[in-house]
């Protein structure tokens, strides 16, 4: 993928947003009952349109409801009010249109790497021959082609997370939901995984919603960064990232990148000191 | 399990698994253990002769060895040993199977849990061996009563551990399956059951030892054959030598049975193996 396609991505956004979005949240509120019976407002009036093939990162202080947001889009949690759309249909429960990646790899330790990746296909009951081909293709994509027979405990944390990314993609969902997927990795592996993910994303052209704690990570990956505020969790601002693609490590040192970081940091600081 | 050494992809390092070291330490460990056993037997011998302990109180090692050889060659230890072993095996198998089935039903349906759990909790505190006289009265002096005792003692450790295991699924694993619209049966088959295996085996390990206790206690209360019966009849003639010989056979039996369970565990729960072969319950 070249810079051109990156610009194309940015360019198409304005043109297509009128009708079809990959995922959309409209006035989503989420309250839940705390232990003492009081209602806690976790998400307040969150509205967000995510375009097809867009890479959106969500950043915010811990406890701002980022993970809840992911679970709502995945259909695992029902919002208290508001509407959630995947493609053009309303989300009423889990659907095979999303792939989930958690902070922990959540691999099944009794299944080898291939078997872990094929799990969604088995659950969705797809044909056996298709399964093998899809699994092999994805293991190659995440650079673990030779590791199919290995068991999760024989792999490093970064490799385990690659397996979980392959698993999330194997049933070819439109939207990839990632909840702090690199949060448990060391800094070096984390950087490497960011670029791996962008490569996979450009090859597979998925819509990605990516939750993170790290400001540079959020900016490096994203077309748009959604900055959230804490209690109640609401969208403070959405920053368009106009850096060219493919993104490179050196970009982190450019003044543009620095400006984005500064802006996100100011927003987050304002949100955390306000309370 | 074979640890293949493969080159890492890119700069991602493969996790180090120190598999080799464990085996190189084995011979020394084995020698130490062997020396300790020899020393203990020697100490036993000298203590008996030095304090002039009467043989009806406790025998010296050599007479015990003689009794062992005699009992094995005239077949009395073997036939009675087989009686006890078959009671243990059948009781353990049925008790564990029933326990696992009950655990599955209890964790699957709330109303089964509500119906049965109070009884299980109440029954757990009853010392099960105290039921032996009743069981003998019901089932008679034959092997069935001992199998029932063995099964009864095996039941609870397996039941309680398997229930814990089946309930121990992580939220993330559930979310993963639910996001794929997995059915309850799929969640059970793909996640709950394999995840419960380490817990189940923790229960089985206790259960196999308990089963031997159950069968022996059953034989104490009333039997026509078996190692427990042999202990009782030898005590009636103050023949402590035979008693200890039977104890040796019993401990060997218990050890072998326990080892078999551990071996099965290491095969079936291979993913939780630590350096010393112990299983960590995650």
Automatic annotation (TrEMBL), chain A:
Any one Gene Ontology molecular-function term assigned to this protein's record: ATP hydrolysis activity
SUPFAM superfamilies to which the protein is assigned, alphabetical: P-loop containing nucleoside triphosphate hydrolases
Cross-referenced Gene3D superfamilies: P-loop containing nucleotide triphosphate hydrolases (3.40.50.300)
Domain of life: Bacteria
Record's keyword annotation contains Transport: yes
Domain (ABC transporter): residue spans on this chain: 25-255
Protein name in UniProt: ABC transporter ATP-binding protein
Protein keywords: ATP-binding, Nucleotide-binding, Transport
CDD domains, sorted: ABC_NrtD_SsuB_transporters
TrEMBL record, chain B:
Cross-referenced SUPFAM superfamilies: MetI-like
Cellular component, GO annotation: plasma membrane
Species of origin: Acrocarpospora macrocephala
Protein name: ABC transporter permease
Membrane topology category: Multi-pass membrane protein
Superkingdom, taxonomy of origin: Bacteria
Record flagged with keyword Cell membrane: yes
TM regions (residue ranges): 30-51, 88-107, 119-141, 147-169, 199-223, 243-264
Alphabetical list of InterPro entries matching this protein: MetI-like (IPR000515), MetI-like_sf (IPR035906)
Residues in ABC transmembrane type-1 domain copies: 77-261
Gene3D superfamilies named in the record: MetI-like (1.10.3720.10)
Entry keywords, A to Z: Cell membrane, Membrane, Transmembrane, Transmembrane helix, Transport
Localization per Swiss-Prot or TrEMBL: Cell membrane
Signal peptide positions on this chain: none
Family from the record: Belongs to the binding-protein-dependent transport system permease family.
Keyword Amino-acid biosynthesis belongs to the record: no
Any Pfam family hit: BPD_transp_1
BP GO annotations: transmembrane transport
């Amino acid at each position: 993928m070249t810079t051109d396609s990156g610009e194309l991505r940015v360019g198409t956004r304005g043109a297509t947003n009128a009708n079809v979005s990959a995922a959309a949240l409209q006035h989503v509120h989420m309250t839940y009952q705390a232990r003492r019976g009081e209602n806690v407002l976790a998400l307040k009036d969150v509205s967000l349109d995510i375009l097809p093939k867009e890479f959106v990162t969500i950043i915010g202080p811990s406890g701002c409801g980022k993970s809840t947001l992911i679970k709502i889009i995945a259909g695992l949690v029902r919002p208290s009010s508001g509407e959630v759309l995947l493609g053009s249909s309303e989300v009423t429960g889990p659907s095979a249109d999303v792939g989930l990646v958690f902070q922990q790899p959540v691999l099944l330790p009794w299944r080898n790497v291939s078997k872990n990746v094929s799990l969604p296909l088995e659950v969705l009951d797809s044909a056996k021959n298709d399964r093998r081909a899809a699994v092999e293709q994805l293991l190659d994509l995440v650079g673990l082609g030779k590791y199919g027979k290995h068991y999760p405990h024989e792999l490093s944390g970064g490799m385990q997370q690659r397996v979980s990314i392959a698993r999330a993609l194997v049933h070819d969902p439109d939207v990839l939901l990632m909840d702090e997927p690199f949060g448990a990795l060391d800094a070096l592996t984390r950087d490497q995984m960011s670029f791996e993910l962008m490569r996979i994303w450009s090859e597979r052209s998925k819509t990605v919603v990516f939750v993170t704690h790290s400001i540079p990570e959020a900016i490096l990956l994203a077309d748009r960064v959604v900055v959230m505020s804490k209690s109640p969790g609401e969208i403070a601002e959405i920053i368009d990232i106009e850096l060219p693609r493919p993104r490179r490590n050196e970009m982190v040192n450019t003044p543009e990148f620095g400006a984005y970081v500064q802006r996100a940091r100011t927003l987050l600081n304002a949100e955390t000191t306000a309370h | 399990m074979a640890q293949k050494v493969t080159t890492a992809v890119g700069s991602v390092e493969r996790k180090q698994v120190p598999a080799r070291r464990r085996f190189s330490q084995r011979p020394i460990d084995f020698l130490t253990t062997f020396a300790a056993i020899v020393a203990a037997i020697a100490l036993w011998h000298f203590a008996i002769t030095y304090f002039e302990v009467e043989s009806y109180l406790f025998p010296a090692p050599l007479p015990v060895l003689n009794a062992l050889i005699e009992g094995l060659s005239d077949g009395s230890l073997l036939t009675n040993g087989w009686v006890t072993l078959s009671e243990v095996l059948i009781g353990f198998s049925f008790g564990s199977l029933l326990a696992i089935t009950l655990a599955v039903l209890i964790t699957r349906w709330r109303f089964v849990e509500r119906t049965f759990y109070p009884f299980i909790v109440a029954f757990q505190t009853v010392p099960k061996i105290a039921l032996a006289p009743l069981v003998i009265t019901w089932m008679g002096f034959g092997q069935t009563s001992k199998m029932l005792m063995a099964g009864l003692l095996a039941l609870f450790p397996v039941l309680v551990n398997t229930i814990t295991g089946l309930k121990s699924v992580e939220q993330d694993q559930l979310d993963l399956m639910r996001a794929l619209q997995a059915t309850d049966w799929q969640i059970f088959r793909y996640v709950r059951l394999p995840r419960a295996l380490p817990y189940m085996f923790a229960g089985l390990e206790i259960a196999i030892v308990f089963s031997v206790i159950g069968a022996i206690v059953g034989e104490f209360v009333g039997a026509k054959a078996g190692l427990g019966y042999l202990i009782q009849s030898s005590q009636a003639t103050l023949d402590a030598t035979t008693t200890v010989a039977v104890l040796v056979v019993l401990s060997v039996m218990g050890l072998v049975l326990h080892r078999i369970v551990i071996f099965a565990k290491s095969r079936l729960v291979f993913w939780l193996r630590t350096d010393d072969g112990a299983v960590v319950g995650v």
